Amino acid sequence: NVIIRSMEGTLSKQQKRRWWLVFIGLVIIFTLAYAQSPLFTSNQNQYFFYGMARAGFGDLDQDWLYSTNDIVPVFSFLVYLTYSVFHTTWVFYLWYAIIFGIYLFSMYGIVSHLFKWEKSIRNLFLFGAVAVFLHSALLRYGISNLISPEWEFLIEGGVAGQRVLGDVFQPSSFGVLFLLSIYLFLKEKPYWAVAVSALAAVIHPTYLLSAAVLTATYGFIRYYETKQIKELILIGLLALVIVSSITIYTVQGFLGVDPELAAQANDITINYRQPHHMIIGEWFDLRVAIKAGLLTLALYLVSKERIFWILLPTAIFVVSLTALQAIIQHPSLAMLFPWRFSVILVPLSTMIISGKLLDVLVLHPNDRRISKKTINIIISIVLVICILTGSFKFFTAIWRWESTPKYEMMTMLRDRHEPGQVFVVPLKWQEFRLVTGIPIVVEFKAGPQSAQDIVEWYDRVQQVDHLYATLRHGNNGCMRLDYLVYAYDATHLVLPNDLEPEPDCMNLLFSNEEFSLYEAVEVE
Length: 524
Prior knowledge:
- The protein is mostly helical.
- Helices cover 64% and strands 4% of the residues.
- It is built from 24 helices and four strands.
- It has helices at residues 2-8, 13-34, 44-47, 49-54, 73-86, 91-114, 121-134, 137-146, 176-186, 190-203, 208-226, 229-252, 259-273, 275-278, 280-283, 286-301, 308-328, 331-335, 342-363, 372-402, 405-416, 432-436, 451-472, 478-488, and strands spanning 423-424, 492-496, 506-511, 515-520.
- It has a four-stranded mixed beta sheet.
- It starts with a helix and ends with a strand.
- 43% of the residues are buried.
- The mean pLDDT is 93.
């Protein structure tokens, strides 16, 4: 109610109803135009695993990964609750639509507050239309094809391949709560702002550092405004109380670890598993300069506004710690993702700049050369194109995925597997667990976080990789497969058809045009 009242302002009851209908319509349009990827894609295969296993999906609770520490327990509980209640995965697409709604609501609230827009349905519609286009699959497709696929999220993503929105619903998506937090702070709701910011870190612990910086910024701004140390202390205590449990839970996974083991695990994580996120040299390029330019321009536009003192300290923090890491290259600092808050700074800068252009060119132009009716027609046409493009991309991606021999193999196994089976699958078959519900030895995308488990994950990856490499070069793969059977209880093996099987230890069960399923048999 606090949030809703601040947005509605002085609108009449009928206008409020119309305002919310328009907003809900924009959220639906935004969702369709953005275009999610099919379940389960990319990081979802790690973050959904624990919740789906606890909900009783297949035999995932027998998978080795399930015995390792869950780094996002709150998100996993959401996954568990959703699947337990609805017994379908399609609801996760709806969860992401809610995230889109919070994102759009917060961005409009911040920008309309900055430029002092009147509470009107037209202003909401115009801003929403701009937001839809700037986040649309249509624009991303254009950037990807005209420049490079790596530039796809240029104006809405942070650095290091991290972003608050993306193709899939995952814990990092709850970074939208930082935007809602900033809006609440601007509306003189500091305690609500701190609570919402802390909630983002509770759901995704890699946001703990970002939430701490934002909370400290709020506290010092309020202290400067009120000259009361009491409010600064209360803001800090509130945030600490909310994040204490998840902080203790997270820190426990790193306590009492042998230093050599920790160093080995850090090396695996940084240099082998996630160099694209953690090594500055891997992601620092022209895109970073463009994003820095967007932030600088946004800071200039809001230099006389209160939000300036939120954006500037957080930006200085991100830049300073990133520069420090570039110099010292310390693994512990890399693991903290000091550049993480860029996922908020960049899209917020984009929308501030867009809001200013909208304000000057459309809402309050000095010389109106285009009528309101013409503007509305143009915007409506653009929205329709964005909806059609995004919907086409979404449904085409699902159709293409479900038409692949890989998916055919997985769905067949989902319906026919038996308890006790453990599969060896290609390392890039990241969807296998959540499509089939069958335990596997390992895959590359989903991995644990504690030092000992990371080392074991790496050993498993190497063993599976060696098996496929051995078969690819025509060597005796039975010894490799026997080790996987002995060490990890493997029972079955999936092979691409371009690899030669070993008939002495592999019994063919099923085959399609690209892949074959074998049962591991003991060599006599």
